[in-house]
């Protein structure tokens, strides 16, 4: 009996110990509500840089400094933390850029996060500034017009047309900026921030601040279980073996 219990204990230990989330997730806190952001593995440089900054508390107390209704809400300028009212923001950042990871199947649908950038020819991203896409829904005729006039004749794929006519977004940004994640919850905060009153620089008249926290290994595992229709794991053995591991994890 003792041998059987030992084998069962080792089996449970192996199963629990081996569990690891498939993605990184970020809890985003705003005055308009909270959200959960999933970071894409297909854009590892942007993913890992964002995780690093969020863990360091870089984004805490920064502003959404540029807000345009039916387009996007932008933040991540370190100069915004202590900025005086009505000061134009958007030129602050870190002393490095992230190489572009633009992919045709990662598009600017509503709720995605993209990396801001300047007009550098390599389309390298700002190391800290980002935007959440709001955009709008398009009719098929509207997409035809967008192709002709805004996209200089470039054609949208069937997938893009389906997404932009049903979910909405900003099609003309595709291929020009790196999209590296999407909101799983809290999409309504984008809509709420996108309609606040702004000045001539598109800066909200009332400061809209943010804070971020990376989900722990167990929180991320349970989130993925719940999204798959499975119950979370929070039992005795789970807590016991979680106590033997770091609360954070690495996604390859």
UniProtKB/TrEMBL annotation:
Q: Among its keywords, does the record have Signal? A: yes
User: Which molecular function GO terms apply here?
Assistant: peptidyl-prolyl cis-trans isomerase activity
The segment(s) forming the PPIase cyclophilin-type domain are 33-206
Signal peptide coordinates:
1-18
Q: What does the entry give for GO biological process?
A: protein folding
Per the UniProt entry, the Enzyme Commission number(s) are 5.2.1.8
SUPFAM superfamilies registered for this protein in UniProt: Cyclophilin-like (SSF50891)
Arranged from A to Z, the UniProt key words for this protein are: Isomerase, Rotamase, Signal
What superkingdom does the record give?
Answer: Bacteria
Q: Which InterPro entries match?
A: Cyclophilin-like_dom_sf, Cyclophilin-type_PPIase_CS, Cyclophilin-type_PPIase_dom, Cyclophilin_A-like
**Cited PROSITE patterns:** CSA_PPIASE_1, CSA_PPIASE_2
Q: Which family does it belong to?
A: Belongs to the cyclophilin-type PPIase family.
Q: Which PANTHER family match?
A: PEPTIDYL-PROLYL CIS-TRANS ISOMERASE-RELATED, PEPTIDYLPROLYL ISOMERASE DOMAIN AND WD REPEAT-CONTAINING PROTEIN 1
Protein name per the record: peptidylprolyl isomerase
Q: Can you name the source organism?
A: Sphingobacterium olei
């Amino acid at each position: 009996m003792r041998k059987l219990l030992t084998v069962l204990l080792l089996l449970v230990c192996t199963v629990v110990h081996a569990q690891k989330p498939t993605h990184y997730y970020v809890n985003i806190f705003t005055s308009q509500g909270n959200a959960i952001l999933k970071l894409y593995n297909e854009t590892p440089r942007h993913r890992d840089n964002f995780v690093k900054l969020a863990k360091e508390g870089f984004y805490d107390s920064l502003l959404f400094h540029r807000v345009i209704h039916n387009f996007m809400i932008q933040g991540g300028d370190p100069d915004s933390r202590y900025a005086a009212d009505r000061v134009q923001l958007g030129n602050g950042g870190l002393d490095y850029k992230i190489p572009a990871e633009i992919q045709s199947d990662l598009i600017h649908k509503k709720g995605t996060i993209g990396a801001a950038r300047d007009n550098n020819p390599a389309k390298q991203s700002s190391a800290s500034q980002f935007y959440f896409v709001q955009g709008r829904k398009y009719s098929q005729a509207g997409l035809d017009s967008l192709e002709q006039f805004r996209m200089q004749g470039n054609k949208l794929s069937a997938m893009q047309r389906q997404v932009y006519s049903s979910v909405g977004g900003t099609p003309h940004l595709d291929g020009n900026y790196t999209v590296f994640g999407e909101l799983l919850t809290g999409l309504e905060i984008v809509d709420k921030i996108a309609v606040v009153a702004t000045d001539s620089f598109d800066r909200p008249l009332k400061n809209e601040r943010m804070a971020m926290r990376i989900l722990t290994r167990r929180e991320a595992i349970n989130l993925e279980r719940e999204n798959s229709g499975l119950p979370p794991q929070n039992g005795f053995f789970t807590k016991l073996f979680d106590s033997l591991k770091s609360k954070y994890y690495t996604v390859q």
